[in-house]
Amino acid sequence: MTSKESGVSALSIFTAPTASAVTGAPAEAPVPAARPCGEREIPAVLGADLEVPVRGGRLVPYANLDYAASAPCLEPVSAAVAAALPAYSSVHRGAGYASQLTTARYEQARHTVRAFTGARPGDAVVFTRNTTDATNLLARSLPEGTTVVVFDTEHHASLLPWTDPVRLAPPAFPGEAVRAADAALEGVRGPALLVVTAASNVTGELWPIAALAHIAHRHGARILVDAAQLAPHRPLNLTALDLDYVVFSGHKLYAPFGTGVLVGRPDWLAGAEPYLKGGGAVRAVNGGATAQDPDAPEVEWHDDPEARHEAGTPNVLGAVALAAACDALTATGWNALVREEGRLLGRLRAGLAAVEGVHELSLWGPDHPRVGIVSFVVDGFTAREVAETLSNEYGIGVRDGKFCAHPFVRHLLDAVDTSGCDPDNAVTASAVRASIGIGTTEEHVDRLLAALADLTSRRG
Questions:
Q1: pTM for this one?
Q2: Which of 265, 356, 434, 437 has the greatest CB tally within 10 Å of its CB?
Q3: Annotated catalytic sites, by residue?
């Protein structure tokens, strides 16, 4: 079923029912020149000149088509970290110049992320280790008795942290996703949370998050959006979309320095036990109850949810890197980035469709809007065989497996002829994923297509 047939257009994915559309679209190592893209320059990634060994001992330029797992570092991100290192110090604790400067950089990073996500003025921006960590933080902060509704199409980071969630089957088209969420929330009493991805890490397909947010709020529920795969590819405006919480990771946003973030409403976070208990999360540690003051608390935690849930020394450089990536993408302009990605993605998908025996996986059909992620299977070969051959013989990096979305991948594999794969075998019932981003070139795409054509010719 196409997006037109399902009544959901590329624009309506990011259009709230009552709001306007959101437009959307090592330091010493040699740094390649930025690539021009129309009137804008797309910043360079480190490692664009990396060479890798292939069978026979030759070295060939690496074709990185595994951006959905971890994106390479942007040159401006590397430069920002290098600039911060000489004055690196502790944050929020020191009176010395280096500590004050580092604290300022850390808090500026928080403001940058707030602007990048279009957060509301009062929203909390809590730095975490990654998307999984951020989601688990929110899971620990839910009010008692909260009902969680989640689709089986989710990444494990969104599927597993909850206690006894209501799990919804993969919807046949976007409108069914909205109706299923509506039905699941209909009879809920008390606090509720709808959990959904913005862009699938398996198929790249965009979800109708604005419509789902509208449905959640109509039932008095809140919505958490996993934006890990959306943030590197499309603008994100939490306010315009009326989202309650979003989570994403730096390592997928060209900032591979170990930081993620949870952005959203502060009340549940401020009312929850600290995610980690230790220095920084407390206002005071007292002696506890005394005869004079029997109600005196032993520990007084910060009311501010950012301080409350960031105990210990934070990953300052990770926050600086994440902010630098946000700044670089914003400065480049989303029109340039989306246009270039669309051109390469169209070339990749058209080429895959032309290779006999290659089957692209899709939940909502080939015409549904998506970001630069494509998963597929190849007749006569397991996903591991395909990935290893691409690496060993052609210098191409892709991902194979179930992409931390086991229920969803099994559902998709049931819909195609997975010749050569045993659907009951947890090892072979997998797919290949090619994902693109800044740094991907036509040569990378064409090399993959030629390699697959060569591989499928060996079946006879």
A1: 0.88
A2: 434
A3: 404
